[in-house]
Queue: 4 jobs
Job 1
Amino acid sequence: MAQLQSCTSAIRPSRWGLVLIVIFLASTVVWGQQRADSRIFIPADRAVNGDAYELTSTNRAMALDVDIAAFKAVAAPEMTISNVPLAPGLTVDLELREWNIVKEGANLVYGTEHGEEPITLGVRMYRGTVKGESESDVFLSFADGSLLGHVTTSDKSYEISTDFEVKPDGFRVPATSYPTDALPNSVINCGVNEDNLLDLLGGSLVDYDYEKYAEHLHAPPRTAANSIDYAAEGAWEGDVEYLGLFNGDGQAAADYMAGIIGEVSAVFERDLSVQLTISHMKIWTSPGAPGYPYKEAEVMSIALNETMNYWNQEENKKIDHAIAHTFSGKNWKNPIGIAFLDVLCPRRGNSPDAQGAYSAITRKNSARDRSVVTHETGHNFGANHTHYCGWGGEFNGAIDKCAPAEGGACFSVTEQTVGTIMSYCSHKELKFHPLVINRLKQKIRNEDCLIASKKLLIQPNLVIFANEIQGVPRDTVLETFFTNVGQYDSIEITGVLRDGADNEQFEILEGMPPFTLAPNETKRIAVRFKAELTVGAQMHLVYQHNGLNPPIKVTFEGYASDIRPILGLRNDFDEIMWTERFIGTINDTVQEDLYINLGVDGVLSEQTATLYITETWIDGPDKLDFQLLEGSAPIQLDGLEKASAAFRFAPTTPGSKKATFYIRSNSDGVPGTLDSLGLVGNGVTGPIMELALPDLIIDFGDVRKGSPRIDTVFENFFRNSGQVSLVYYTELQRTKGEENVFTASTISNLLKPGESDRLTFSFFAKPEHQLGLKQAQFIIISDNENQTYEVSNDTLHLVGNVLAPSSVPDNLEPDEFFYVTENPTTGSEVSFFLGPRQGEVGDLFIASLIDMNGREVWRQVGQFQTDQGDTWRLDAREWPSGVYYIRVSTTDEIRARKLTITW
């Protein structure tokens, strides 16, 4: 096993930039061709190392040098590469078109110990043909240090792969071309077998009629896909050992993974018209990376379960993917691949889903790597092995007998034939068997998560005109009846077949084919039910189109009756009145049995037509102030049946409010029907508590210890500026420090609109009080007069500063919590830093600046918001020279710092 290098080397950027082109599905874009005149593929004068590729013969193998610099110089979306040597004496020209499988916005990351880091892919992929051979197939993937691909001519297939045993010479990448029939006749050991077949089944197996599809047995050769019907988003990951195959070179590991996926996609595009895309790629660089899932190294089925558990994690379910596949570099021998069967499009719900595939990667043998990934991905799509007994056909249920029977005993003796991708035959071709293709195409068409190039959706598929009035035609318009849910191609709706009993009772007013829908475009249909007969009428429509799904059938039914439903409203009242309600309040009312079907046409209620309430809404100048809470359409009422409703009135502005509640039903136009109801209310302004002190702080200033009581009087402190009465309550609470420092005169009272109340506060600086800041809170709560809801809740802060008899402060020694900048010689600012001591965060403080005579020239009430403190800057231009003190009072102490200003 190769040694891992540090993760820094695993994420180095590519040496060229790549602007991703769109994922082409049924592309019709034509680019100007670029011809490569300088040689890109150059015969090399060295022997082919057959052991590196496990070749049985090197007679037709050829050593090459691939000039990446020459390729970059001529690389274009469409190009021809001339003189490509495939074997001694065989040179071809390749006509190529660039092909990208990376989804726009794909999540491409390395999983490192420090989290995810981005991957920048440095690979360019091309599809095409050999010039002059329409039935040929070419895939090439170029990267800075590697190349992989294949060329299938009319008579032989060649693999082109990087020769990792030879050191690159500058921009020349050593490679080898060899015929695929030089590979050993060995069986790919897959972990899906008779013992675990049911355990690995995630979808549903379907038996197919072998004889019905027998014409596919000798189908013409398949060539490069010219159109793609679907794209399947893939989530691809590589374990730590996979990165180790590249000696820790993350760029090389990412480019190789993308190349293999591209080559596998080329097979799926050619045979199934479905492209495999990369929506997620993650290569893990360390087993210590957070969330690393791939730890099992002995039993591959356990490793597959690790993959399943990983993708069923809540965060990973959010990643868009139809399939999930792990590239492993562990030393797997038997098996070398395993996958769940029939698990396209895992769900995103809470239940765990069987999903995932696991492939052992060699790096050196790209043909084997491509084959195993293709095989296991085929399982995910729903393909069993070709020796599975559920296929039917000439081998009594199996397509071939290259391995012992699976899923039954349809044969007992094995025999070797030329196999296909899902077979265990010792020699096989890189293609799906026609019966496998047929099965997979049906599964692909039925999966919702695959991105379709063009797909027609018609909904609803059943439309009913229920109990219409005989002789009264009814029209309906379905705005988004037709939708092209495809993402890339237009759909032509070419015609419609029509039948059904009395279908002449319907008239299609709008939406008749032919017409065309662009991707995501919708179209409406308008249909009239004439209602001329009292028997039920049906119109079946089958729409013909060129989308990927079959013709679509929809049905219209219509029923007319001369027994008429009549919508009545309880007590025949014409409005709901709320009278006066305060602005901002919510006022709900339940109207029991509001609706009633009064349309009794006989003695018994069953002789009455059913009432269908199809639409309910509120309109009018003040419709936003009203809301229907219960009793909204659709509602169905038989004769004399009733239904309730609930309404809300929530005025947002003062004044009279009016709106109308409308009901649409199949009794519209029938005499006696009521189809509307008035909604009336009046929004009024409630009580509003207005305080005379907007900043909610009362500062009693500095008071010498033992001074007389200080009173502060507010004549109109409380005022009701609303339109109805309120009740208020007050409470004085000590915040910190001594009690009985503050008093307040008012406890509670009722205020009518426009009334106000006086408030008196007192501050005591008694001899026994400590020096420093005193504070309290005065809480004011007001309710409406009936005390059913709270109007306001305010807190007033009371502060005062108790000082010693001397005007000169002490406690002058600076510390880390309080210091000043002294003697400014330039500028006009004085600054000081003030921070809280332990336990003071959230406390109030009083900062003031006094002169030598004790006169205060600046004062500020503040609060310690955080434990970081703040720097205060004061404009000192108007201050005369002299000595000042900056004093700070808290509940615990008084601090001061001396400041000398000289101008």
Job 2
Amino acid sequence: MLGTKERSMAQEMVTFTINDREVKIEAGKTVLQAARSLGVWIPTLCHNPALEPEGSCRLCLVEVEAFGRRRLATSCGYPVAEGIKVYTDTEKVVESRKVVAELLLARCSDNQQVRELCAKLGVTDTPFAKRHEDCILCGLCVQMCHQRMKIGAIGFAHRGFDRKVETPYGELSDTCITCGACEFICPTGAITARMNSGKDPVKHKKEFDQELAVRGNIDIPFPSAVPLLPSIDRENCIHFQVGKDACKVCQTVCPAGAIDFEQTDTETELEVGAVILCPGLERYNPRVRGELGFGRWPNVVTSLQFERILSASGPFQGTVSRPSDGRHPHKIAWVQCVGSRDQHNANPWCSSVCCMYATKQAVIAREHDKSIQPTILFMEMRAFGKDFDKYVERAKNEYNVRYQRAMISQVREEAGTGNLIVRYAQENGELIDETFDLLVLSVGLEPHANAKELAEIAGIELTERLFPKTSPLAPVETTRDGVYATGIYQSPKDIPETVMQGSAVAGRAMALLAEARGTETKPKQVPPERDVAGEAPKLGVFVCNCGINISGTIDTKSVVEAVKDEPNVTHCENLLYACSQDSQEKIKKLVAEKGLNRVLVASCTPRTHTPLFQETLRDAGLNKYLFELADIREQCSWCHMGRRETATAKAKDIVKMNIAKVRLLQPIHTESVPVTPAAMIIGGGVAGMTTALALADQGFEAHVVEMSDRLGGLAATVRKTLEGANVQEFVRSQIERVMNHPKVKVHLGAKVQKTDGYIGNFETTLDNGDTFKHGVIVVATGGVDYQPTEYLYGQKENVVTQRALEGMIADGLPKGKTFAMIQCVGSREEPANYCSRVCCQDAIKNAIAIREQDPTSKVVIFYRDIRTYGLREDYYTKARELGVMFVRYEVDRKPVVSANGPFIRVETHDFLLDRPIGINADYLALSVGLRPHPTTEETSRQFKLTRNQDGFFLEAHVKLRPVDFASEGLFLAGLAHAPKNLDETINQALAAAG
């Protein structure tokens, strides 16, 4: 049954003919509106749907037959009526329009818009005397200013040939608010806001593009926004600024009627069992560092701005360009630690992400343009993540990225060029002036301005740095039960650690809400699956540009042209980002409109994106297995970078082969099977115990398999964390909980003999005869300390590891006044070219303890880079304040260690003093790296798990799935994955259980 509105609309339809075609249109529409809705072209210059029609330009003339008469009428103001006949292209109409066009061309003979429209009407010259105006006197600007803006700053003045639009008395107007509406609506560009007020309209900078582009007052925040909907900027919208029912143009022209100016914010109360705080951080404002020139010199940009410059959806469409003149820069410098590691006018902590994103950006810039010469100006390179050091080495060796240790003192602009002269001090104190085309400031992270307000609302305590108070042994738990903190809000961290901690906090919340789990879940509503049996294959093929990841190497348009005529291909097109929400919606729409029954997307890895597209197909009513993903990124663009023709040819073949495969795809129907609600955790260290307890607290059984006769792993040898947390007490507490938890079964002195079954239903037999069933497997086999053979270790009793020194300090300070420490022993060089992450912190922890116990002692740390990332930087600062000395060395000029009587002699080259130095130490502590546990090779064979070249297990995806193996149902945690600190191990263990 129709509602009142629907009934009235149905009753108000009129029937008439247009060009001898009978049509039905809603009453109240004009002939022009009707024609446009039917796809009939009528030229206009002065028409705008937001304003009452004037018919000033006369270009929209049509012939109307009504009441026995046939005459010319302006279609923009003539309402449709029952039985009328409209003709839009008769000889009379065409000739009349030409006369109007000739008159317009005579008045505005030089105006580009007028000339183009006249040419479309077949008029390229005029018999009338030419004038050189731009204004066609249509009056749109005047109407807009009076009717819509409610300002009335302009109007018509004079008569005849002198008639024109101007402000009262031709003076600059005080009434004009410089909104730019007149300029926006003018069809010929004849008027500007500056003519009226002497000012230009304020251009609103687009926040997502980091103010490198402009936006309107109605804008979609960014391409992948959720929901993908535009919103009105109330602070700048003319309607809200002027009031008096002003403007509302958007509401008038919106076909969906989606704009409601009366809508206000609403408050909703939710009853929840846990609260997770993850509002993130904000970037440091580099304008505070005036010497760097940001906001003053246009070619000084932030790292986030450069990220948008590199993006294919950014302000320069992925072309590396300078903001000042659009020129391609050749020499680009990145300045590190802007807003980080600075006690004076910035933040004292390390933001953890800057070194690696600068390296990434330098590499991508080189991929964009081989002529670019990237330089990274840094103090210490903190590439502490998994395989990060290898990435830096690759940047140096394959992309010619230059790393220069420097401290910046001044940036100034070179007159006439826009280039930037950077003055920096080298490590030996020498001042250098170097010129660059573009300067990128690697800005750090800091808490939001309303951090205290949020903490008060949530009822949690903050540190003096305005981060949530958490413990390294309970890293996601705040000072209030049931309220958790995660991500960079908890502390600065990179993407893998953020993803891990996100899953970790979900695991903690799930444990808290275990009794309520599943009580309020609702199945997702999807349309019935379309039966495609008997249908001929109708393929939709979508080739993704993936920004420049793919299109930078492969000519994707050429790929589309090459495959669009393949048999059964019904639709084929390019997509900028196939995985974006708008692209997903487009695919669903095309499935419905064109009856597609199979879909092929040529884009990136199927490991992460296949489930996304399968879900899209299911939402469109197709079986999800009627989808195929052709990998033209890893298998083509990335491995053939720089060989565009070869890569494009290969991409065409890959897509064609996949089209042949997709034709043969048939629906597959899946069934749910019961899952064994239990887990096997291999390894009884902190990672294994934490995972077991997290699962057990959620109500699942956990079997901990530990090959040794005790639990605790490597953490059992650690006394305290850098922050001072008691690790021994924590380990004892975890062991006690594990041994006494009714849901946890511990198998000591046992190893996995065999595991049978499949995901969700495994059965494992141990070498001691124990057998049990479980649904998932968590590998937490841990790691071991490197056993050094260098630096007289094992030959001299006073050459020890940091772990041993920590024990000596805890048992009473060892006799001696001078302590030397050497970093990166067994790390950051082959055969273990990775950062072990914990070594710098172990050294600083012990150095602080020595100096605090005996302020007269001397501690010298020989290092390559001190990597106290995140909030750990405070302890590096504290060590320096306590008088700990730091001497840097290079890997090709390592310290030389020798016995000198009872002392250990350490000699090296001091780069700061630029001369050799030496020290006689009572003790030499070696900061040894971490190695994978020897059992990882056997575990890898048993479960067919891949490892990296260093022997650590490989995750499914370094950023998106850092706790999953590629095989479903298998997870990893702790040192088995990579070296990490205790809090990071706990996070990953909780994530594996989450």
Job 3
Amino acid sequence: MGFLINRMHHFLHQGNIFKDAATWNESTLLKRDHAWKKTWILDCVPSAFFNAFVSLVITSSVNGPVSSLVPMFRFIPVDHSSHQELNTVRQSLKAKLVEESIVPIETYSQQNVFYKPYEVGRLMPDFWRILDQAREQKVNLHNLQSLGKYILSSSFDNEEYDDILSFLGVEPVNNEWYAACIQSSNLVAGVLKDLYLEILLFFASNWSSKFECTNIKNVRLIKYVGVDRDESLCSIYECMNFSTVVSLSRDYLYVSWLSDSSREFRCAGNRFFMPTCTQEALFFSSKKVAIWNWLQVQVKVVFVNVYEYAIHIRNSLNNDRKLAVAFVRFLYHSLLKEHLSRGETDDLCDIMPLIDNYGDLTTKRQGVIVPANGSKWVELIVSNPWRGVDYIELGEENLRPGYFAGEFTSGEQLLEFLKTHVGASDIPDISPPDADIPAVAAPLTFQNVFLLLDWIRNLKYRGIRILNRFLKSIKEATISVIHAYLFTGNHFANGSVLVHIPLIDQKFYGDRINDYKDELKTIGVVFEYGEACEYIGNHLMFVVENSTLTRSQVLSVLNFIRFFKENVLPLDKFISRIKERRWLRTSCSDRSPVEFVLFDPEWRLASQISDIPFIDTDYFGEEILSLEEELKSLGVLIGFNGSFKLVGDNLKSPSRLTSLTAEAVLLILECMHHLGSPTKLVETLRGVKCFKTNIGYKSPGECFLFNSEWACMLQVFNGFPLIDHDFYGSIIFSYINQLRQIGVKVDFEEAVKVFAHSFRQQASSMTKENVLSFLSCYRQLKGTPHKFPPDLKKFLREEKWLRTRLGGV
């Protein structure tokens, strides 16, 4: 009680109420012989103390910081007295203080602001430490006082002042305040990684006791890296319901690799990772276990290793070929970095979808063969005879060289990886199918003869039985060598060759052929010369006029012509009789020589857009190309030589003209230029999405040709398909008339109609950027011949499309 009197004494003295107050103490005030003083003084003390205290607080707040003001609150008599009279005084004083704005709040400025005690709230010490560090990191905290409770000054919010603050009725803020603070500030996104972990630790440590049932679950507290590779935030509720799946690496070694891989996979399957720096900081945090357990158990953050992440990606590919290609590279580098074991890699490769040669993603397969390009099997067999037994041919897209997460992979590395872990095979290591192989009936090159023999040797060495249909195809095969043929099986009896005796050319093959006697016997080669003598040739003219010629017979006819030419014998009659007949096989059908073309590089581009009747070199083999002069003498077209009409007359169907290369489009335009009014070309192209634009491939009628005088008009809104002149080159502008013919909008008058229609549709939802872009374009067109149509001008004057503070006007 003496403490109360002494505190009163100080403020009475400060207030100059009683000049002799210094001589008073508790005992004298309470003596019975001073009853009149006792009553009078005790009635005056609350007001005197209150006035003096408030005066001192206000004066001190002007002259110094809150830290110098706070000690003055120790003068408040907070202790209970054994004398009821003084307790009454104490309660009277308290009643005055709690209704006065005397409690300083945190302003983060030099301005001191005071509120009534019941209007002010206290914060948990751990959260004060977070706020102090956040302020050091330049995070704006000025919104703390706008969340329902004014926050007590940090200088005052200390344990040593608990009794004073309790006396005044300053209570801790409720738990929802912390959720509101996080939600309304940049406290999460604006702090560095270590302080972010402190924030997570704060909520983790107090979860069950304070925050589990608060709105913090709906506050965006959890950091992750989004599809755009920027840091984003989601709520605990989103994590708990897996609407946003946030992941962490189980091991520090995988953190960077998994994060980089996630960006490459565009966060497939809605799976995101916390920022790399946050994950790394977590692994080195002394509170790792507490934060880790809270994230895993309460927030439902998913912890994964590389294998588990790979399983997730495999299940999220969704027929996306780009992701499938990336997945192969991911597995390759994960194995190389030893993030996956060989066994895990094999398991993943067993279920990994592969792109086949048709561009389809497939997992159902009995085996895999290497891509046709550069393979030995296509060199020998041409087509894929294994497809019927669920073998797939690897698409070249699987082997496209490129980068994944900063790591380069060559096509050769990917092929070796797929050979090892998927079992992609080629001749001579692959087992042959039980099927006919029509391609081996064509003349085999020197290399293919030995490739076939090596394949047979490899099969015999591995103890694999050569199936009947396959063996029969080989026995009936024809092997071409220079100007002679090597026949196997019963070709002699069939009499299918018109000119040459089928003797193995030992000089051509060299001594190496003698090493394959067992293999040659297997496929039916006859080693006795006498048996070859039974071969009888038929007269060429008789065959041409009386039957449909086989491939071998066609080649024999051409060789016959060559023989006549070399020996300067007359050919006119023979050629005139056969050049108009349909006996040559082309890529379209059997035709007469004057109706078809011999393919060469000059025709490669034209073949992309037109079904040119090329000689079927797949059917006739390479030998047909060596007979160019003979074909020319029969009327076959050799070389392009400005054959624009032929290209136009044989144009492919619209469904096959989509997504054309730049060169192909320019060739079509060049054809139109030479043909004048090509009705078929125009009608075919009108509805075909063949032009590459800034928003993908579009049909001519949807496209615009760039014009610098009014191109700004097409930049006001997204969605106007501008022909990609960088893709086609500046030459595209020289075909304005042809582009106009097929419907491309090359003139302002046509373009502005489309723009006006789009403007009316989007006027009510125009963004600031749209409006500014339109106004800039309007200024640019002003004073030029390009004028907006009257109906659009009327729309601009009368409709609401400009946003004001009161709404659209």
Job 4
Amino acid sequence: MVHVTIVCAIIGKGNVFSVEIDDAQSMYYLRQAIEEQYEEITSRWDRLQFFLAKRDGKWLSTDDSDVAAMHSGEVPESLEVLLFEKIDDKDDICNVFVPTPRTKEIHVLVKICSGEYIKLKDSEYTTWMNELKYYRDRGECIRRNCGDYCDQILNKIDNLYEFPVHPMPFICVAASSGMGKTQLAFALGGRRPWFYWPAISLGQGSQLIYLNFFSFSKEFNSFTWKDDPMKKPEEDILDTTSEIYESEHLWTYGFIRALLEHCNSKSNRPAQMICFEEETSLYVEKCSRNSVVAARKRMGKNAVPFFILDEMSELYGGRNKVAFQRNVFRACGLVVIVMGTDANITKLASHSKTEKWMTLFARLPPYQPMDLVNEEKQAAWIRMKEQYPVLMDIVVNSRGRFDKYFVDKVAEFAMKGESVNLCDLLNNAFDYVGNSTYNGKGFMYKKDGKDAHLMATAYTNVDHESCIASSTVPEPRPKKRKFAGVVGTQCMHVHFANLVEDQHIDVMLLEGKLNVDGVHWEPRCRFPKVEEDVLLYLAVVGGKDSLGDANRYKYKYSAMRMFSKGKKHITQDNGHALSSDFITFENMLAQAIFCASRRNGVRGIPFKDFFYGLLGEFQNEFKWMEMIMSDTRKSVGVTELVAGYNDLTALPDTMIPFLAPPNATWPRFIVETRDRGCNFGHLIRATNKDVYVLNMENEDGVLPFLCVSKHWDQKLHIGMMKEIILGLNSAWKEKWALVLVFCMKMTDIRLDWEEQSIGCVKIGCQNCRVDWIFQPIAGHEKKLVVVMEMGSLPIFNQS
């Protein structure tokens, strides 16, 4: 038995002391000897960790500058790399201390543990695990079918690790709900391992896929709160080179280091998402950036993982929290991908720095159809898409979230019987998609959500190319839409707008300003074109039974009611409008026509019912209205009003189609469903503020009706009326037979009426009272002017 003198140094304190012990004993007895020798740690012997103080095969010298640096509480990066190979208590001292220790050497680095153990475990709930399998299968499908897209992200990750800069740029995947962000997180395998978890706090109501990562999310947010970035200056949190990241010991750093150590604990770890199917205990304590960097440097070139933080939003915890959670990875030279619907995460930057900032991916792979888990449903879906190919066209041209609802409902509906009518099938499926989206996203419960919903319906925030092609539109042509970036990036978070970029871009930070290719950049959003997300416009903006508000079971919101609960100035679609109130009115009128056209589903709606529904859209609560003659107090219908007008004889039963949003074009595969009994059409708003409906069954014939809204806020007198009729005859010639003229009130023009073949009737939009102004002599009726008296609308009387 030989006595050896072991010299120890306390990590982070620099205290040096020696103990004598027999070399035949185990490290357990060395632990006890240290307890007896160094009184400060006697009560914490079970919290000690030992590391060999050996660098490049040699013991550290007591004169080493790094050892001296520990006296100030610093742990130099060169020593951090030694703190990974712990000495086991069962090891014999004679086998551990080779070569034999001598004087003026440090042999053991003693770490007094002050951290905590956490347990990570994937969910065991069957429902959650089924959702996890669904996303894994989707990820495999995306990687298989959209490999080029995945390679763009993986190439960027490899490039960032191959040519690192400090701070590390991040990758941002930003898109509205249902575009496939989370599915993409499961598709990035093949080159290096990665970690994924939602950055938000999870609980009841969270998406099932997120709940599989509950323990991960919980611990990450717990350590964030311990570091308390919310109480620190915002500029320091935004600046990745500030003292917070460079010098402070952070719990979040400790969490990241523990993950790196876990990743490195298994040799030849597969290049896939790291999961915790078995409960895993990890030790986490506050540490410095140097400690995380040291852990990263110990890993092989392709073994360093990347990290995906989903649902990143400053709305959950504030700017400081989300910027801090992103920047702790960047400060350590680790690639982090932040995903979310909040476009503001792209610009949480220091106000004075110049650096490579981020790579933005704003377009995701298209939806990849997969077999349904339920075999009976899958068989029903196959049968339906073979019978009605339009179903697959709809799926291919919509986002995944809507597709999932749509396919599920189509299959369920088809299972009820062998004979399935396409109109009934679509009505049921659209209703299910709309209501599932309302309930899942909850945008109709929020003021910003309601406003965004109105913007989507107005269709003013898309490229002007989405307007109906001039070849199908009689003059005057529809108004061109100028791109409206002012709608607000909140439309991506609360609704279904997306960033305008159609390919990934690299963004620089130049003195605090975001820049792309030398041009100032900021996030701007637009809503998808119809052909990009057809279910958004077929179902989510309103179908047969899913119009208005999510509270429809309690209250049927009319178009006017929807606008009264939203902002007065909701879009900037008409730069020539006399006032912002007109913008609101014009959109409300288009919304009323749009909604009334859909109240009977995809078959279209007879004009007489459409008109009663249109009047209902101007009530506080939607209901089918009945018209009353003012002089007789008797009920009167559309058929009686147009009696004698040859061009309007068929009008009451003329089908008003299921309309697209204003100036939007249905794809051909939607229009062609008329052969199956569907009736889809277009709502056109022309440059002179007229609104008319184009009936797809007779594009060249007389229009079902025209609307004129240019005098909505005035008392309509005979001079205005003459101007309107002159304009209609000039622009539309023989193509018009019925016009609805919207005004606040009409003066008595009976004695001044000169058009002997044109009748005129006034209808109160809210009280539905009918008054004839002029009725042509029997046999001479050609055209009819219906003055829609609005009165003082509540949407313009709010304080």
